[in-house]
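Please check our next protein.
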Amino acid sequence: MQVEEVLEHINVPSYVIDASGVIRWLNAAAKHIVGDVRGRQFTSVVATEDTRRARELFARKLVGGVPVTDAPVDIVTAGGERIAVEISSVPLFHEEQVIGVFGQVSDLIEEPHSHPELHLTPRQAEVLGLLERGRSTGQIAAELHLSIETVRNHIRRMLQAVGASSRLEAVAIARGDA
């Protein structure tokens, strides 16, 4: 069996994007989630607020800056619903040149809920959402392209805003468990 044939039949959503950002291949599991989107830009299945970050991650792969990326992304299903997934992707090479990206959905993430009642800034809400997904300070910094100290400041202000003394307590408050 060829690798592509094997990947077609596994239950892990998988895809190939060419160097111009066009989706060239999806397996059946991926088509089940987003539909047959071959020939479309990969950003067409990424939630609007995640588009910029998804493009940045893709661009870093093309220039050879990172060998693998694991990142949470909200995607839009064939039915128009949003789901949070963890994507793991690697650059595809032909000789020395990057010709595209291969990726898989490594996890469906329980989507953090928006928290308008907490009166957070957009950045604080984003940081809280990443904390709800189990991200560390370093992971948040890398994902948001911020320094660790800037992330710590956002976390400190977010804790004050929600009246929490720890990250765990803030997540519990956000989920309504506290």
Notes: The CA atoms of residues 7 and 27 lie 7 Å apart. The longest strand covers residues 82-94.
